[in-house]
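wait is this the right file?? whatever heres the structure
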């Protein structure tokens, strides 16, 4: 495992299924954890932003303009969407950044569809009866 505090996917990147982008924020992570997918990119698979239980650092995922995600997006922090998601979104809260302000739990110029081909689903949830995780994750779609 490589520890870093950010993961940046540059413009016009295309990752085919089964791709997984995962940012794991650990106690050793400096500042906040940030996973950014720049504009005009295509990702088929899963995008994960997770943090260990003891970590209080901020975690954010940003999906750039004209970016298309086909699969699951899971964030234990904020999620900013400026593109399209075909699949499911799980996050703590949505962020909309504008030149004049920052809005919590607002969407603008975003396309979200649940019409995901079942062959493009990666099982992100592991059922383990021995663990109890009560995180504030909301399913949007």
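ok assuming it is, sequence goes like this
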């Amino acid at each position: 495992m490589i520890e870093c505090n950010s993961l940046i996917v540059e413009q016009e990147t295309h990752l085919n299924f089964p791709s997984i982008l995962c940012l794991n924020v650990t106690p050793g992570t400096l500042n906040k954890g940030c996973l950014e997918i720049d504009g005009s990119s295509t990702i088929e698979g899963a995008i994960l932003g997770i943090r260990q239980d003891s970590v209080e650092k901020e975690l954010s995922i940003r999906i750039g303009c004209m970016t298309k995600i086909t699969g699951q997006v899971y964030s234990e922090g904020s999620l900013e969407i400026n593109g399209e998601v075909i699949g499911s979104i799980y996050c703590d809260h949505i962020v909309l950044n504008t030149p004049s302000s920052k809005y919590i739990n607002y969407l603008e110029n975003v396309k979200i569809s649940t019409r995901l081909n079942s062959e493009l689903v990666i099982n992100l949830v592991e059922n383990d009866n021995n663990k109890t995780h009560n995180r504030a994750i909301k399913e949007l779609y």
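Residues 6-139 form one domain. so i think its the right one actually
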